[in-house]
Amino acid sequence: MTSVAIQNATPPLVKGARATQSTIFLKITMAVSGLIFVGFVLAHMYGNLKAFAGHDDFNHYAEHLRTIGEPILPHAGFLWIARAVLILALVVHVYAAATLWKRAKRARTVRYQVKKHTGAIFASRLMRWGGVTILLFLVWHLLNFTVGKVNVKGGATNDPYNLLVDTFDTWWLTIIYLVAMAMLGAHLHHGIWSATQTLGLTGSERSRKLAKNTAFTLAVIIAGGFSIVPIFVLFGVISK
Ligand code: HEM
């Protein structure tokens, strides 16, 4: 039997069950990769607060990231493992999001007759466009601080603290970062709540409430914690 014949022989109910299974798998994949990001941004945000301790402490912290795990691991070995995990999580997260979005679009064969702007439609658009914005932000961010080390003030680029101060001393760069952090906060708020639902952690009314509050609190702490460094640089509290 050819594969077409086999496919045609598969009853629609079985096909539907398989599609549902793979949709659940994709959602779990999104939730788990998303939670890896939550761990990363929480740690990164906390690390950035070292900027308040001044030039030497911040640069010492940046160097320490490269020596974690030595001598068992080579120099920057831990950083490369973390980078590999993050890249894998990013690929999986974006692939699952795009596939789920395409499926939802295909399933809606009939366009909405009355365009009701329900909360669910708004949330899914916010997640999609928020995700794209965060990706664009990430490209600029890595060019800015890691891959390219772009200093728009023309100052030194091999000194992490000075690069940070020069970047956020530039008002329009601070605005770009603050907009990105607002998008990140909204993405985390809805994403963490969705992940808890996917992972079956919202069975009772009490756990639903707890999950909602946790999603909100984490989103505010992460987006707020990231934002205060650029704001305090712009207002001269953190300076060279
Ligand atoms: C105001 C917000 C942020 C500030 C001030 C900031 C600052 C920095 C700095 C200074 C570095 C370079 C660290 C070093 O080389 O030692 C860095 C690297 C990085 N940041 Fe951020 N960051 C912010 C937000 C974010 C967000 C929201 C994400 C993720 C969505 C992110 C992802 C990364 C990544 C992936 C690296 C590269 C780490 C590496 O491979 O070396 N950052 N950031």
The total domain count is 1
Measured as a percent range, the helix fraction is over 70%
**Class, according to the CATH hierarchy?**
Mainly Alpha
- Return the CATH topology: 3 helical TM bundles of succinate and fumarate reductases
CATH architecture: Up-down Bundle
N-to-C SSE string, H for helix and E for strand: HHHHHHHH
Summarize the main sheet. none
Integer-rounded radius of gyration: 22 Å
Write down the overall geometry. Answer: elongated
Distance between the termini: 74 Å
* Poorly predicted parts: none
Instruction: Report strand %.
Output: under 5%
What is bound: which ligands?
A: protoporphyrin IX containing FE
Give a count of the beta strands, DSSP E runs of length 2 or more: 0
Describe this structure in words.
The chain is mainly alpha-helical. The protein has one domain: Up-down Bundle (3 helical TM bundles of succinate and fumarate reductases). The protein contains eight helices and no strands. α2 packs antiparallel against α4, α5 crosses α7 and α6 crosses α8. The N and C termini lie far apart (74 Å). Protoporphyrin IX containing FE binds next to α2, α3, α4, α5 and α6. The site of protoporphyrin IX containing FE has 21 residues, from α2, α3, α4, α5 and α6.
Defining key terms:
single chain; 240 residues; mainly alpha; 3 helical TM bundles of succinate and fumarate reductases; 8 helices; 76% helix; binds protoporphyrin IX containing FE
